[in-house]
Amino acid sequence: MTKETKYQSKQEKTSSKSFSIFSIFRIIIIIGLLIYLGMVYWLPKKPKMENNLMIATNGTCMGTTWNVSICESSFQDEAKLFEIVQTVLDNVDATMSTYKSDSEVSRFNRSLSTDWFPVSPLLFEVVQKSLEISQKTNGAFDITVGPLVNLWKFGPDKTQISQLPTEEEIESTRKFVGYRNLQTDSTTSAIKKTIPELYIDLSAIAKGYAVDLVARELEKNNINNYLVEVGGETRCNGEKMLKIESNETEKNQTTDDSIEKRPWVLGIEKPYIKKDFDETPIFLYRKVIMKDGLSLATSGDYRNYRLVDSTRFSHLIDPRTGKPTIMINENANVPMKRLGSVSVILPNCLEADAYATAFFVLGENEGIELANRLYIPVLFIIRNEQTDPPQFEEVASDSFLNKIESTKF
Ligand code: FAD
Q1: For a substitution probing ligand 1, which of 203, 205, 305, 321 has the most ligand atoms within 8 Å of its CB?
Q2: Which sign does the torsion angle of CA 71, 73, 74, 80 carry?
Q3: In the chain, fewer beta carbons within 10 Å around the N or the C end?
């Protein structure tokens, strides 16, 4: 073999070698491409979730905020939804606000007459329900607590409280409190005081009632999948619907099989003492699956409280003592286990709202006994301040444990 031939064959050898590497490389790319195309066209695709069936709107009322979300393909008009909700809430405000001097309840409170006072069906229904719950809770829930609420500066008078009310002031105010001094006559839709100074405060029940009224109005408009929340009191119905958009389904076409239904899920927060009312972040303690039109209301000592000198006290007043249920001398620095919040889950939000206040006033020991007797789903969250940061323990009623689908975080 001549040198040249040898060289050629070497060259040929190299080029045939690089040729074979190149062709192997090319084959690998083709196979890779085929595999990729196979994946794109044949493997089941992970559908893209799109939550475009829900419309949500929000606003303010009663010194707090409200949020409504609905999932109804036949109702997609957000502006109309806002108008429906705000109209209902403004009406409750005009009827039941002690912060508005011209509201129906303020006119009743100002009147010193002990004659029958005709009222609207709205106000009549709330007063009647309130008296029923006062009876069932032995006065722990009592809308005639208004004068004490105002004495402790949790009412419309927003002036700072500079010193704690004296025992005399508490006792002299307590004389005007007691649900038995308030009567109703369903034949004439009228209410009446037996003592002229009686003054009712509906802050612990009217928000829950407002949620129920909004729910009623939504259902009148054939909206049955909704979440309604006013100042933290919440009612859910039906389900959340997510439109699953996959490539097979045309972008704007919604076929039945492209909708996924899920229950509404709410969180119960850990009752850490908040430095300010709306402090974030919120740390969740439990989540609750809100099935079959349930309502959730929570009352607690961790948002709405006052500090005078070193005494912290909350807005939940025990009508039997005339004092806030929680009064803590922060300097005493005696770390304890204290009730931080009470959550109640019931089919209607009016009762959930009122019972949450009542059970907080009763405390976990007396409260759990009543909750089990009335078979009401209640969760008491105890803040253990012996640890830093505080840990949380719970006391749950039998019906909470048996009826409510909930998981701890
Ligand atoms: P909850 O824990 O549900 O109830 C506590 C409240 O109920 C207390 O604040 C007290 O008022 C009352 N209460 C305390 N102890 C008892 C008891 N043993 N039994 C019965 N009731 C008790 N706030 C504003 O700042 N500006 C406003 O313009 C304003 N307008 C309002 C209009 C309406 C119609 C209502 C109902 C309330 C309004 N509020 C307003 C008050 C505010 O919305 C809340 O009601 C208040 O902050 C308490 O909310 P909460 O959920 O913490 O109360």
Answers
A1: 203
A2: positive
A3: N
